[in-house]
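thought: fold this chain, then report.
action: predict
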Amino acid sequence: MDMGAMLAGKKVLVTGASSGLGENFARLAAQCKAKVVIAARRKDRLEKLANELKTLGSPEVTALSLDVGSEDSIAQAFAAIDASGQPLDVVVNNAGISGEGMALKLPTETFDDIMNINVRGVWLVAVYAARRWKDAGRGGSIVNIASIQGERVMPGITPYSASKAAVVHMTKSLALEWARYGIRVNAIEPGYIGTEMTDEMWTTDYGKALIQRIPMRRLGKPEELNGLLLLMATDAGSWMTGACVPVDGGHLCSSL
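observation:
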């Protein structure tokens, strides 16, 4: 079964596409000859990526300015997608932020920002897509990007961990509600992966020690999430909904 071929011609929205995992997922969709909508706050970076995606094989690439922390921004982005004529088939709900700090000293604003982007933003993008699919009488696939932090915890990132736990539970709940409409909702729970957002951490003594706690003794690569994304996004996973799957080098299996 060629899952990549099953994505060809489909319209795929990737949020948070200007860097990291989102950028990787956009490249994957382009290589599979999907029509790709890349969306993020940093529009200048999207333009450069859009040109690359066309060379990778995407028949159509659209770059949209999108701040998932703003419902007005989300509404405008979906209106632009509606105006294109072809509805979405897949949403990769990837946009998110991190934040560090011990709970007793953490500013309330930091907590609010993380919840606004990582929970409310994921919720709104999912709902805006699902409403359209339901009204059109067609299904679709939503792939939320959660984290192993939604399953286990560590000090200093409580709001982030809480936000990803919310995404895990939201994924299961929406999958239950929307299964009757042919809308599938699944989540990938990445472990520690080398990306722009976390690169500096892995050069510290703390980061190096953390890598040694991963059973495979290495960081993951963004492309090591691609197989699972294709399974969740295409009809290869047509009976799969409400699944939240870790890809973490065995980290969740590590001994306490």
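thought: worth noting. Strands lie at 11-15, 35-40, 61-65, 90-93, 140-145, 183-190, 244-247.
final: tokens above.
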